[in-house]
Amino acid sequence: xxxxxxxxxxxxxxxxxxxxxxxxxxxxxxxxxxxxxxxxxxxxxxxxxxxxxxxxxxxxxxxxxxxxxxxxxxxxxxxxxxxxxxxxxxxxxxxxxxxxxxxxxxxxxxxxxxxxxxxxxxxxxxxxxxxxxxxxxxxxxxxxxxxxxxxxxxxxxxxxxxxxxxxxxxxxxxxxxxxxxxxxxxxxxxxxxxxxxxxxxxxxxxxxxxxxxxxxxxxxxxxxxxxxxxxxxxxxxxxxxxxxxxxxxxxxxxxxxxxxxxxxxxxxxxxxxxxxxxxxxxxxxxxxxxxxxxxxxxxxxxxxxxxxxxxxxxxxxxxxxxxxxxxxxxxxxxxxxxxxxxxxxxxxxxxxxxxxxxxxxxxxxxxxxxxxxxxxxxxxxxxxxxxxxxxxxxxxxxxxxxxxxxxxxxxxxxxxxxxxxxxxxxxx
Length: 428
Known about the structure:
Elements: H1 16-25, H2 29-36, H3 41-46, E1 63-67, H4 74-91, E2 98-104, H5 110-125, E3 130-136, E4 146-147, E5 160-164, E6 166-168, E7 183-187, E8 190-192, E9 196-198, E10 204-208, E11 212-214, E12 220-222, E13 228-232, E14 235-236, E15 240-241, E16 249-254, H6 258-261, H7 271-275, H8 282-285, E17 290-295, H9 300-305, E18 317-321, H10 322-325, H11 331-338, E19 345-350, E20 359-365, E21 380-385, H12 390-401, E22 404-406, E23 413-414, E24 422-423, E25 426-427
Parallel strand pairs: 1-2, 2-3, 3-5, 4-6, 5-7, 6-8, 7-10, 8-11, 9-12, 10-13, 11-14, 12-15, 13-16, 16-17, 17-18, 18-19, 19-21
Antiparallel strand pairs: 20-21, 20-22, 20-25, 23-24
Protein backbone atom coordinates (compact mmCIF):
# COMPACT_ATOMS: atom_id res chain seq x y z
CA UNK A 1 0.00 0.00 0.00
CA UNK A 2 1.57 3.33 -1.02
CA UNK A 3 2.29 5.90 1.67
CA UNK A 4 -0.20 8.72 2.07
CA UNK A 5 0.73 12.10 0.74
CA UNK A 6 1.20 15.11 2.93
CA UNK A 7 -2.02 16.95 3.51
CA UNK A 8 -4.10 13.81 3.09
CA UNK A 9 -7.12 12.97 5.16
CA UNK A 10 -5.41 10.26 7.17
CA UNK A 11 -4.98 10.87 10.93
CA UNK A 12 -1.50 11.67 12.09
CA UNK A 13 0.01 9.40 14.72
CA UNK A 14 0.30 11.14 18.07
CA UNK A 15 3.68 11.38 19.72
CA UNK A 16 4.25 8.61 22.28
CA UNK A 17 4.75 11.06 25.13
CA UNK A 18 1.60 12.98 24.25
CA UNK A 19 -0.43 9.77 24.18
CA UNK A 20 0.71 8.80 27.67
CA UNK A 21 -0.07 12.24 29.04
CA UNK A 22 -3.51 12.29 27.45
CA UNK A 23 -4.39 8.84 28.78
CA UNK A 24 -4.76 10.16 32.33
CA UNK A 25 -6.11 13.58 31.44
CA UNK A 26 -9.16 12.13 29.73
CA UNK A 27 -10.19 10.03 32.75
CA UNK A 28 -12.87 11.55 34.99
CA UNK A 29 -12.08 12.32 38.61
CA UNK A 30 -14.30 9.47 39.82
CA UNK A 31 -12.18 6.92 37.97
CA UNK A 32 -8.92 8.38 39.27
CA UNK A 33 -10.25 8.34 42.83
CA UNK A 34 -11.23 4.71 42.40
CA UNK A 35 -7.70 3.86 41.24
CA UNK A 36 -6.22 5.65 44.27
CA UNK A 37 -8.29 3.36 46.51
CA UNK A 38 -6.00 0.44 45.66
CA UNK A 39 -2.85 2.25 46.80
CA UNK A 40 -1.56 2.29 50.39
CA UNK A 41 -2.67 5.52 52.06
CA UNK A 42 0.84 6.98 52.12
CA UNK A 43 1.27 6.51 48.36
CA UNK A 44 -2.20 7.81 47.63
CA UNK A 45 -1.47 11.04 49.52
CA UNK A 46 1.84 11.50 47.67
CA UNK A 47 -0.03 11.86 44.36
CA UNK A 48 -0.99 15.38 45.45
CA UNK A 49 2.35 16.63 44.05
CA UNK A 50 1.81 15.27 40.52
CA UNK A 51 -0.20 18.22 39.21
CA UNK A 52 -2.75 20.80 40.27
CA UNK A 53 -5.60 18.47 39.34
CA UNK A 54 -4.26 15.76 41.68
CA UNK A 55 -3.86 18.05 44.66
CA UNK A 56 -7.10 17.01 46.38
CA UNK A 57 -8.12 13.81 44.60
CA UNK A 58 -6.77 11.55 47.36
CA UNK A 59 -9.25 13.08 49.82
CA UNK A 60 -12.17 11.70 47.79
CA UNK A 61 -10.81 8.19 47.22
CA UNK A 62 -13.58 5.74 48.23
CA UNK A 63 -11.06 3.24 49.60
CA UNK A 64 -8.45 3.56 52.33
CA UNK A 65 -5.62 1.07 52.81
CA UNK A 66 -3.54 1.72 55.93
CA UNK A 67 -0.81 -0.89 55.83
CA UNK A 68 2.16 -0.78 58.18
CA UNK A 69 4.89 -3.41 57.88
CA UNK A 70 6.38 -2.88 61.33
CA UNK A 71 9.91 -2.20 60.12
CA UNK A 72 11.91 0.16 62.29
CA UNK A 73 11.66 1.11 65.93
CA UNK A 74 9.22 3.27 67.88
CA UNK A 75 10.04 6.28 65.69
CA UNK A 76 8.32 4.59 62.76
CA UNK A 77 5.14 4.07 64.77
CA UNK A 78 5.25 7.70 65.86
CA UNK A 79 5.53 8.79 62.25
CA UNK A 80 2.52 6.66 61.41
CA UNK A 81 0.51 8.31 64.15
CA UNK A 82 1.42 11.76 62.87
CA UNK A 83 0.56 10.78 59.32
CA UNK A 84 -2.78 9.26 60.32
CA UNK A 85 -3.84 12.25 62.42
CA UNK A 86 -3.02 14.70 59.64
CA UNK A 87 -4.63 12.54 56.97
CA UNK A 88 -7.93 12.21 58.84
CA UNK A 89 -7.88 15.93 59.65
CA UNK A 90 -7.48 16.92 55.99
CA UNK A 91 -9.75 14.19 54.70
CA UNK A 92 -12.62 15.18 56.93
CA UNK A 93 -15.79 13.13 56.63
CA UNK A 94 -15.45 12.19 52.94
CA UNK A 95 -17.44 8.95 52.38
CA UNK A 96 -15.59 5.62 52.32
CA UNK A 97 -16.64 2.38 50.69
CA UNK A 98 -13.79 0.27 52.07
CA UNK A 99 -11.09 0.57 54.72
CA UNK A 100 -8.32 -1.91 55.44
CA UNK A 101 -6.37 -1.15 58.61
CA UNK A 102 -3.44 -3.52 59.17
CA UNK A 103 -0.94 -2.65 61.89
CA UNK A 104 2.04 -4.65 63.15
CA UNK A 105 3.97 -4.18 66.38
CA UNK A 106 1.61 -1.63 67.89
CA UNK A 107 2.37 -0.82 71.50
CA UNK A 108 -0.35 -1.77 73.99
CA UNK A 109 -0.17 1.34 76.14
CA UNK A 110 -3.48 3.08 76.84
CA UNK A 111 -2.68 6.17 74.78
CA UNK A 112 -1.90 4.22 71.64
CA UNK A 113 -4.89 1.91 72.04
CA UNK A 114 -7.14 4.92 72.45
CA UNK A 115 -5.64 6.59 69.37
CA UNK A 116 -6.24 3.55 67.13
CA UNK A 117 -9.79 3.14 68.43
CA UNK A 118 -10.43 6.79 67.55
CA UNK A 119 -9.23 6.10 63.99
CA UNK A 120 -11.68 3.21 63.76
CA UNK A 121 -14.55 5.37 65.00
CA UNK A 122 -13.63 8.09 62.51
CA UNK A 123 -13.71 5.58 59.65
CA UNK A 124 -17.15 4.39 60.77
CA UNK A 125 -18.36 8.00 60.78
CA UNK A 126 -17.21 8.23 57.14
CA UNK A 127 -19.99 5.76 56.29
CA UNK A 128 -17.60 2.92 55.47
CA UNK A 129 -19.28 -0.17 54.02
CA UNK A 130 -16.44 -2.74 54.26
CA UNK A 131 -14.11 -2.53 57.27
CA UNK A 132 -11.10 -4.84 57.76
CA UNK A 133 -9.10 -4.61 61.01
CA UNK A 134 -5.97 -6.74 61.32
CA UNK A 135 -3.45 -6.40 64.17
CA UNK A 136 -0.20 -8.24 64.83
CA UNK A 137 1.93 -7.23 67.81
CA UNK A 138 4.83 -9.67 67.90
CA UNK A 139 5.43 -12.72 65.75
CA UNK A 140 7.02 -14.49 68.72
CA UNK A 141 3.96 -13.85 70.87
CA UNK A 142 1.07 -14.98 68.68
CA UNK A 143 -1.47 -14.86 71.50
CA UNK A 144 -1.34 -11.06 71.76
CA UNK A 145 -4.52 -9.26 70.74
CA UNK A 146 -5.57 -5.65 70.18
CA UNK A 147 -8.14 -4.36 72.66
CA UNK A 148 -11.14 -2.84 70.91
CA UNK A 149 -13.11 -0.44 73.04
CA UNK A 150 -16.36 -1.55 74.62
CA UNK A 151 -18.61 0.94 72.85
CA UNK A 152 -21.06 -0.55 70.34
CA UNK A 153 -20.66 0.16 66.64
CA UNK A 154 -23.30 2.50 65.25
CA UNK A 155 -23.54 2.60 61.48
CA UNK A 156 -26.33 2.64 58.92
CA UNK A 157 -23.88 1.77 56.13
CA UNK A 158 -21.51 -0.96 57.38
CA UNK A 159 -22.13 -4.14 55.36
CA UNK A 160 -19.03 -6.23 56.02
CA UNK A 161 -16.74 -6.36 59.09
CA UNK A 162 -13.52 -8.43 59.24
CA UNK A 163 -11.63 -8.65 62.55
CA UNK A 164 -8.29 -10.41 63.04
CA UNK A 165 -6.26 -10.65 66.26
CA UNK A 166 -8.54 -8.48 68.36
CA UNK A 167 -9.82 -8.68 71.90
CA UNK A 168 -13.63 -8.41 71.94
CA UNK A 169 -15.54 -7.56 75.07
CA UNK A 170 -18.29 -5.29 76.28
CA UNK A 171 -20.88 -4.10 73.77
CA UNK A 172 -18.75 -4.08 70.62
CA UNK A 173 -20.40 -7.25 69.25
CA UNK A 174 -23.90 -5.86 69.75
CA UNK A 175 -24.59 -5.05 66.12
CA UNK A 176 -28.23 -4.13 66.60
CA UNK A 177 -27.26 -0.56 65.63
CA UNK A 178 -25.76 -1.78 62.32
CA UNK A 179 -28.90 -2.69 60.34
CA UNK A 180 -27.00 -3.15 57.05
CA UNK A 181 -24.33 -5.53 58.41
CA UNK A 182 -24.50 -8.83 56.50
CA UNK A 183 -21.02 -10.37 56.78
CA UNK A 184 -18.96 -10.77 59.98
CA UNK A 185 -15.59 -12.53 60.05
CA UNK A 186 -13.62 -13.02 63.28
CA UNK A 187 -10.22 -14.72 63.18
CA UNK A 188 -7.58 -15.49 65.84
CA UNK A 189 -9.35 -13.38 68.45
CA UNK A 190 -10.42 -13.43 72.09
CA UNK A 191 -14.16 -13.32 72.77
CA UNK A 192 -14.40 -12.67 76.48
CA UNK A 193 -17.12 -12.03 79.05
CA UNK A 194 -19.87 -11.43 76.50
CA UNK A 195 -23.52 -12.26 76.82
CA UNK A 196 -24.26 -12.55 73.13
CA UNK A 197 -23.23 -11.79 69.57
CA UNK A 198 -26.33 -10.06 68.30
CA UNK A 199 -27.41 -9.07 64.80
CA UNK A 200 -30.78 -9.19 63.06
CA UNK A 201 -29.31 -8.45 59.63
CA UNK A 202 -26.31 -10.80 59.62
CA UNK A 203 -26.32 -13.37 56.79
CA UNK A 204 -22.78 -14.78 57.00
CA UNK A 205 -20.80 -15.44 60.18
CA UNK A 206 -17.27 -16.87 60.31
CA UNK A 207 -15.34 -17.43 63.56
CA UNK A 208 -12.11 -19.28 62.77
CA UNK A 209 -8.46 -19.62 63.71
CA UNK A 210 -7.19 -19.59 67.28
CA UNK A 211 -10.24 -18.08 68.95
CA UNK A 212 -10.72 -18.06 72.70
CA UNK A 213 -14.20 -18.18 74.23
CA UNK A 214 -14.17 -17.59 77.96
CA UNK A 215 -16.27 -16.20 80.76
CA UNK A 216 -18.58 -17.45 83.46
CA UNK A 217 -21.39 -18.29 81.02
CA UNK A 218 -21.65 -19.47 77.43
CA UNK A 219 -21.98 -16.78 74.77
CA UNK A 220 -25.24 -16.79 72.83
CA UNK A 221 -25.07 -16.29 69.07
CA UNK A 222 -28.32 -14.60 68.07
CA UNK A 223 -28.52 -14.13 64.29
CA UNK A 224 -31.97 -15.28 63.14
CA UNK A 225 -31.39 -14.35 59.48
CA UNK A 226 -28.05 -16.15 59.17
CA UNK A 227 -27.59 -18.06 55.90
CA UNK A 228 -23.98 -19.25 56.22
CA UNK A 229 -22.06 -20.24 59.36
CA UNK A 230 -18.42 -21.26 59.76
CA UNK A 231 -17.51 -21.87 63.39
CA UNK A 232 -14.28 -23.24 64.87
CA UNK A 233 -14.38 -23.28 68.67
CA UNK A 234 -10.70 -23.62 69.51
CA UNK A 235 -10.58 -22.86 73.22
CA UNK A 236 -13.12 -22.24 75.91
CA UNK A 237 -16.85 -22.72 76.29
CA UNK A 238 -18.73 -23.62 73.14
CA UNK A 239 -21.21 -20.84 72.33
CA UNK A 240 -24.95 -21.50 72.32
CA UNK A 241 -26.44 -21.17 68.85
CA UNK A 242 -29.95 -19.78 68.96
CA UNK A 243 -32.54 -20.59 66.30
CA UNK A 244 -31.47 -19.83 62.71
CA UNK A 245 -34.49 -20.53 60.47
CA UNK A 246 -32.77 -19.19 57.31
CA UNK A 247 -29.58 -21.25 57.68
CA UNK A 248 -28.49 -22.93 54.44
CA UNK A 249 -24.88 -24.01 55.06
CA UNK A 250 -23.02 -24.61 58.32
CA UNK A 251 -19.46 -25.83 58.95
CA UNK A 252 -18.81 -26.40 62.66
CA UNK A 253 -15.70 -27.79 64.32
CA UNK A 254 -16.33 -28.53 68.00
CA UNK A 255 -13.71 -27.96 70.68
CA UNK A 256 -12.88 -31.10 72.63
CA UNK A 257 -11.41 -28.96 75.41
CA UNK A 258 -14.77 -27.52 76.39
CA UNK A 259 -14.76 -29.82 79.42
CA UNK A 260 -11.55 -28.16 80.66
CA UNK A 261 -13.47 -24.92 81.05
CA UNK A 262 -16.62 -26.65 82.21
CA UNK A 263 -16.39 -30.24 83.46
CA UNK A 264 -16.75 -33.82 82.39
CA UNK A 265 -20.24 -34.28 80.99
CA UNK A 266 -20.71 -37.36 83.16
CA UNK A 267 -19.99 -35.44 86.35
CA UNK A 268 -22.99 -34.96 88.62
CA UNK A 269 -21.48 -31.97 90.36
CA UNK A 270 -21.24 -29.46 87.50
CA UNK A 271 -23.67 -26.61 88.10
CA UNK A 272 -23.21 -25.28 84.55
CA UNK A 273 -24.22 -28.57 82.92
CA UNK A 274 -27.22 -28.79 85.24
CA UNK A 275 -28.28 -25.34 84.09
CA UNK A 276 -27.86 -26.26 80.41
CA UNK A 277 -31.15 -28.09 79.94
CA UNK A 278 -31.32 -27.50 76.20
CA UNK A 279 -29.11 -28.02 73.19
CA UNK A 280 -25.95 -25.93 72.85
CA UNK A 281 -25.21 -26.43 69.14
CA UNK A 282 -27.59 -28.83 67.42
CA UNK A 283 -30.80 -26.88 67.98
CA UNK A 284 -29.33 -23.84 66.23
CA UNK A 285 -28.09 -26.03 63.35
CA UNK A 286 -31.30 -28.02 62.97
CA UNK A 287 -32.67 -26.02 60.03
CA UNK A 288 -29.51 -26.09 57.89
CA UNK A 289 -29.65 -27.67 54.44
CA UNK A 290 -25.95 -28.58 54.36
CA UNK A 291 -24.02 -29.41 57.53
CA UNK A 292 -20.37 -30.25 58.22
CA UNK A 293 -19.93 -31.34 61.84
CA UNK A 294 -16.46 -32.31 63.04
CA UNK A 295 -14.39 -32.44 66.23
CA UNK A 296 -10.70 -32.82 67.00
CA UNK A 297 -11.57 -35.42 69.65
CA UNK A 298 -14.56 -37.06 71.24
CA UNK A 299 -16.47 -34.13 72.65
CA UNK A 300 -18.76 -33.96 75.64
CA UNK A 301 -20.82 -31.20 74.05
CA UNK A 302 -22.07 -33.42 71.24
CA UNK A 303 -22.80 -36.25 73.68
CA UNK A 304 -24.98 -34.03 75.86
CA UNK A 305 -26.57 -32.29 72.85
CA UNK A 306 -27.78 -35.61 71.46
CA UNK A 307 -29.95 -36.03 74.55
CA UNK A 308 -32.02 -33.19 73.12
CA UNK A 309 -31.41 -34.01 69.45
CA UNK A 310 -33.73 -31.90 67.27
CA UNK A 311 -35.30 -32.78 63.93
CA UNK A 312 -33.08 -31.69 61.03
CA UNK A 313 -36.08 -30.95 58.88
CA UNK A 314 -34.23 -29.39 55.92
CA UNK A 315 -30.93 -31.29 56.03
CA UNK A 316 -29.99 -32.81 52.66
CA UNK A 317 -26.18 -33.01 52.84
CA UNK A 318 -24.27 -34.11 55.95
CA UNK A 319 -20.55 -34.65 56.63
CA UNK A 320 -19.31 -36.11 59.93
CA UNK A 321 -15.86 -37.15 61.06
CA UNK A 322 -15.08 -40.17 63.25
CA UNK A 323 -15.49 -38.29 66.55
CA UNK A 324 -19.03 -37.29 65.63
CA UNK A 325 -20.20 -40.66 64.32
CA UNK A 326 -18.04 -43.58 65.44
CA UNK A 327 -17.71 -43.45 69.27
CA UNK A 328 -19.05 -46.34 71.38
CA UNK A 329 -22.13 -47.98 69.81
CA UNK A 330 -22.56 -45.42 66.99
CA UNK A 331 -25.30 -43.80 69.03
CA UNK A 332 -24.41 -40.32 67.72
CA UNK A 333 -24.65 -41.36 64.07
CA UNK A 334 -27.83 -43.33 64.70
CA UNK A 335 -29.49 -40.42 66.48
CA UNK A 336 -28.60 -37.90 63.75
CA UNK A 337 -29.79 -40.24 60.96
CA UNK A 338 -33.06 -40.90 62.77
CA UNK A 339 -33.67 -37.15 63.03
CA UNK A 340 -32.81 -36.30 59.39
CA UNK A 341 -35.96 -37.25 57.42
CA UNK A 342 -34.96 -35.66 54.07
CA UNK A 343 -31.23 -36.48 54.05
CA UNK A 344 -29.96 -37.23 50.53
CA UNK A 345 -26.17 -37.51 50.91
CA UNK A 346 -24.04 -38.70 53.84
CA UNK A 347 -20.24 -38.37 53.93
CA UNK A 348 -18.09 -39.86 56.68
CA UNK A 349 -14.52 -38.59 56.95
CA UNK A 350 -12.75 -41.22 59.05
CA UNK A 351 -9.40 -40.84 60.81
CA UNK A 352 -7.96 -38.32 58.40
CA UNK A 353 -8.32 -34.76 57.24
CA UNK A 354 -9.98 -33.99 53.92
CA UNK A 355 -6.81 -33.46 51.82
CA UNK A 356 -5.18 -36.54 53.38
CA UNK A 357 -7.96 -38.97 52.46
CA UNK A 358 -6.62 -41.45 49.93
CA UNK A 359 -9.52 -43.90 49.89
CA UNK A 360 -13.06 -43.26 48.75
CA UNK A 361 -15.88 -45.77 49.08
CA UNK A 362 -19.32 -45.11 47.66
CA UNK A 363 -22.53 -46.82 48.60
CA UNK A 364 -26.30 -46.45 48.67
CA UNK A 365 -29.20 -47.95 50.63
CA UNK A 366 -30.62 -51.21 49.32
CA UNK A 367 -34.38 -50.64 48.86
CA UNK A 368 -35.12 -54.18 50.09
CA UNK A 369 -32.92 -53.98 53.19
CA UNK A 370 -33.15 -50.27 54.03
CA UNK A 371 -33.45 -49.62 57.75
CA UNK A 372 -36.36 -47.53 58.99
CA UNK A 373 -33.80 -45.46 60.89
CA UNK A 374 -32.53 -43.73 57.75
CA UNK A 375 -34.16 -41.30 55.35
CA UNK A 376 -36.03 -42.74 52.40
CA UNK A 377 -34.44 -39.94 50.34
CA UNK A 378 -30.87 -41.06 51.11
CA UNK A 379 -29.21 -41.90 47.79
CA UNK A 380 -25.45 -41.51 48.28
CA UNK A 381 -23.18 -42.57 51.13
CA UNK A 382 -19.46 -41.79 50.92
CA UNK A 383 -16.73 -43.00 53.26
CA UNK A 384 -13.35 -41.28 53.02
CA UNK A 385 -10.28 -42.42 54.89
CA UNK A 386 -6.51 -42.62 54.66
CA UNK A 387 -6.31 -46.39 55.02
CA UNK A 388 -8.87 -49.15 55.49
CA UNK A 389 -8.20 -50.60 58.94
CA UNK A 390 -10.32 -52.29 61.61
CA UNK A 391 -11.74 -48.95 62.79
CA UNK A 392 -13.02 -48.14 59.31
CA UNK A 393 -14.32 -51.68 58.82
CA UNK A 394 -16.35 -51.32 62.03
CA UNK A 395 -18.05 -48.25 60.59
CA UNK A 396 -18.71 -49.98 57.28
CA UNK A 397 -20.17 -52.98 59.09
CA UNK A 398 -22.53 -50.69 61.00
CA UNK A 399 -23.65 -49.05 57.75
CA UNK A 400 -24.22 -52.49 56.27
CA UNK A 401 -26.60 -53.30 59.12
CA UNK A 402 -28.61 -50.21 58.12
CA UNK A 403 -28.99 -51.65 54.62
CA UNK A 404 -26.36 -49.45 52.99
CA UNK A 405 -24.58 -51.46 50.30
CA UNK A 406 -21.33 -50.58 48.58
CA UNK A 407 -20.70 -51.34 44.93
CA UNK A 408 -17.57 -53.33 44.25
CA UNK A 409 -14.93 -52.95 41.60
CA UNK A 410 -11.49 -54.46 41.67
CA UNK A 411 -10.11 -56.12 44.77
CA UNK A 412 -12.57 -57.34 47.39
CA UNK A 413 -11.64 -57.90 51.03
CA UNK A 414 -13.45 -59.97 53.67
CA UNK A 415 -12.93 -59.54 57.38
CA UNK A 416 -13.23 -63.28 58.15
CA UNK A 417 -14.43 -66.47 56.61
CA UNK A 418 -18.19 -66.66 56.25
CA UNK A 419 -18.65 -62.94 56.87
CA UNK A 420 -21.25 -61.52 54.51
CA UNK A 421 -19.82 -58.04 54.81
CA UNK A 422 -17.12 -57.07 52.39
CA UNK A 423 -15.86 -53.84 50.95
CA UNK A 424 -13.61 -52.43 48.33
CA UNK A 425 -11.85 -49.10 48.01
CA UNK A 426 -11.00 -46.75 45.19
CA UNK A 427 -7.94 -44.48 45.19
CA UNK A 428 -8.92 -40.79 45.03
